[in-house]
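User: I'm putting together a teaching handout on how multi-component assemblies are represented. Below are the sequence lines for each component of a complex, exactly as they appear in our records. Could you produce the 3D structure of the whole assembly as structure tokens, so the students can see both representations side by side? Please keep the chain order the same as the input.
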Amino acid sequence: MSSNNITVHHGEEINNSTGVSNKKLLMWAFLGSDVMFFGTFIGTFMAYRNKSLNGPYPADTLDIPITTVSTFVLLMSSLGIVLALHYLKESKMGLAKFWLFAVIVMGLIFMGFQVYEFSHFAHIGMTPQVNLFGSTFFTLTSLHGAHVSLGILWLIFLLYNEFNGNLTSDNAVDLEIAGLYWHFVDIVWILIFGLLYLITAGDGVPPGGIPWEGAH
Amino acid sequence: MSFLKDLFEHDGNGWWKIPKTSEAEPNPKNEHPFGDFIKRTKAFIVWLTSGKGHAGPAYYWVIALILGLITLVEVWWFEQDGLRYILVPAMLGFSMVKFILVVAFFMHLRFDHKLFSWIFVTCMVIGVFIFSLFILLSAFHGYGN
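Assistant: Of course. Below is the structure of the complete assembly, with chains in the same order as your input.
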């Protein structure tokens, strides 16, 4: 089937002028803009590193073992979605559904870790308004969390379509673009874990800063 | 001459006119307990470098394993007080390797249309520029004053 400048091949609309799928092109363009978006927030976080003059400081708050587990879960969810897509393209629907379900569960586990972390921080007195570290940390991680939440909703919608028979190997590109989004969320977390957590977790009181004595 | 050459010379595969492949060799290099592992590793390297391969689930598992191992090394590095002085470049390096592995292989950018690579890499360059600009501005500005 084809119109003036669009060819439909296995449910994938190929633009004849560019030779690529319109849906994938749109997703890559969106991801490109999101790279700049997150680049700004990660840059802001790093620019304000060690500039909070009152606590709590990163060394008082960040819990690396817990975040390592949640990072590992998110990494494995990337494996899950690529397997879900692989099996969907091969029309192995049972395995495709299993892995898509597994990705949703792993995404929810990751969000559970984030909710736990945020509530723990709030409990010890670290809130977005307490200092520069709190402001930049919560802005960046909650924006990422919003992306993960949106991704989970998208994947639930796709799983529902798989069970209804509306998502098959013929329109696997729908899962492919959702997968691109999910992988992107994963690579943003890879950067956040490396730069925000591991590099700054040892940062204590900066020169001129007031030592933190815990929540009052 | 061609007949004599065919008669007295062969590719060393022990069988007349059998195409020279690793399977047809009289003493295959892979004929030991790890033979299959080596063949698969070689195939994996070819797939990594060719840019044309069609990956199967095993390859995705291997990439995931590498990502998991790098994460463990990152955390181990973080725990070593003696390595703190190069923590920032090390973490940047590890993060970049993981980033590239996911983008190239899980997101299939290595095998997909070049246009996608151009879009993403261009935006990536702008993103890194913005990031660097923030760091530089902060460095020149001092402690927030």
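A couple of points students might notice: The two ends of chain A are 69 Å apart (CA to CA). Chain A touches chain B through 52 residues (CB under 8 Å).
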